[in-house]
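To illustrate the input format used throughout this study, we show a single complete record. The first block contains the structure-token representation of the backbone; no residue identities are included at this stage. The design step must infer an amino acid for every position from geometry alone.
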């Protein structure tokens, strides 16, 4: 029901207006002065107020900011016997929806109310979306109770309240962007933009343009000025994923930006400024990269103000079951299917798999299983072959066999290099092709 409150001390006018509005299907309450009007708002949900300007205990124009301060989504239409430009201007500045003269209101009021309710409905939807977004990207939305993930969440909560640069490390698919979003959402910058860019996606030239923007005519195809993501992130957070892939030349420009808050758009001669919080992410060992001159050491130290390492999924095995249940529910809804049950065989397989692709791989596997499911329960048959076979392979492998020792050692080295296979092959003193063959053989 759409709820309207009429505040007017002229009883005849108020009653006539109430009858007209009720005939259109609205729920109408009445009050004769400011005090009783405020009581009505507190006692009952109100969407739109029709309020006289001159009231026995106050002025409708003065009432507007008081109501809007407490009930920002409530719309107020002021009614007056005599039009007054200064009152009209002031009331609109304070947030009134409209200001109309009595006598002209009968024909105008219903269309005006319809527009006011459209705005109320839109504002409610926006509030609901904001709540959903806030919940989706909050720390509370991060699923897991294993000590390693709880430690990462604790560190992220602490740094969120500051403006410090954050470096998120860990293997691909461990949820670095989810953490970055949660840090932004819990920070003082949450009302402003969260802007994300994957540095491995573009060539150097396109990456520079995406990051810093360009001026018209700066290069062939630059037909107009374009904002960069640094400018878009002003006041908010800039998330640079896979920062270890950023070319050295752009690293120098990013370093200057972090040191001075100034940058040059491509084709511009005048520096621009941007105030943003930087969160960077990588699956590489940037310290090693800087020692081997593949990443600027000065930029590494700038980024590494506060480092949080996100654990691999195989190191938080107790979280696999709740993550599986969450993704099953999510993809059931997405595919317009009823929520599936999960049999013990399915859970046994997913909890014993090593998940080299981490949460991202688990999510993709669950989506596939939901699509393939024909009954009302997910079974192991809907899992990819490598997940079904790996447990059987593990059962037949003796804990004391050379293969078991080799598999465990390769896994430890991959963990140490955070999934960097080239570095793992170097430390193992084997060729990269041999390492890939071993990974395939042992289903790592």
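Output of the design step:
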């Amino acid at each position: 029901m759409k709820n309207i409150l009429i505040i007017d001390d002229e009883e005849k006018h108020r009653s006539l207006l109430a009858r007209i509005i009720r005939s259109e299907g609205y729920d109408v309450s009445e009050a004769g002065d400011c005090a009783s009007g405020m009581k009505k708002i507190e006692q009952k949900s109100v969407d739109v107020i029709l309020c006289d300007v001159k009231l026995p205990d106050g002025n409708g124009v003065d009432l507007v900011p008081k109501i809007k301060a407490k009930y920002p989504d409530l719309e107020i239409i002021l009614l007056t016997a005599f039009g007054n430009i200064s009152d009209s201007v002031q009331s609109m500045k304070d947030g009134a929806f409209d200001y109309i003269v009595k006598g002209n209101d009968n024909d105008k009021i219903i269309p005006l109310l319809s527009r006011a309710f459209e705005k109320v409905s839109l504002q409610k939807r926006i509030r609901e979306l904001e709540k959903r977004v806030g919940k989706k990207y909050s720390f509370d939305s991060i699923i897991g109770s294993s000590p390693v993930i709880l430690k990462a969440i604790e560190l992220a909560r602490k740094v969120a309240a500051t403006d410090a640069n954050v470096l998120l490390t860990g293997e691909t698919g461990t949820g670095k962007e989810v953490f970055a979003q949660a840090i932004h959402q819990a920070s003082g910058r949450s009302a402003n933009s969260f802007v994300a860019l994957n540095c491995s996606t573009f060539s150097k030239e396109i990456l520079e343009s995406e990051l810093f923007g360009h001026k018209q005519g700066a290069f062939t195809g630059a037909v107009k000025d374009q904002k960069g993501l640094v400018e878009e992130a002003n006041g908010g957070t800039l998330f640079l994923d896979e920062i270890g892939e950023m070319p050295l030349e752009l690293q120098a420009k990013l370093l200057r930006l972090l040191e001075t808050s100034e940058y040059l758009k491509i084709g511009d001669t005048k520096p621009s400024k941007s105030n943003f919080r930087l969160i960077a992410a990588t699956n590489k060992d940037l310290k090693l990269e800087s020692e081997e001159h593949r990443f600027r050491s000065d930029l590494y130290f700038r980024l590494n103000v506060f480092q949080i390492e996100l654990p691999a999924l195989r190191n938080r095995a107790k979280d696999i079951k709740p993550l599986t249940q969450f993704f099953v529910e999510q993809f059931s809804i997405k595919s317009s299917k009823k929520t599936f049950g999960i049999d013990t065989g399915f859970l046994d397989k997913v909890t014993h798999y090593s998940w080299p692709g981490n949460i991202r791989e688990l999510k993709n596997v669950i989506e596939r299983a939901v699509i393939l499911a024909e009954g009302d329960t997910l079974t192991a048959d809907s899992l990819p072959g490598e997940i079904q076979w790996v447990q059987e392979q593990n059962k037949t492998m003796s804990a004391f066999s050379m293969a078991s020792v080799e598999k465990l050692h390769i896994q430890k080295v991959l963990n140490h290099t955070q999934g960097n296979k080239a570095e793992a092959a170097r430390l193992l003193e084997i060729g990269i092709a041999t390492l890939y063959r071993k990974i395939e053989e042992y289903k790592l």
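Structural context for interpreting the output: The longest strand covers residues 75-80. The mean pLDDT is 87.
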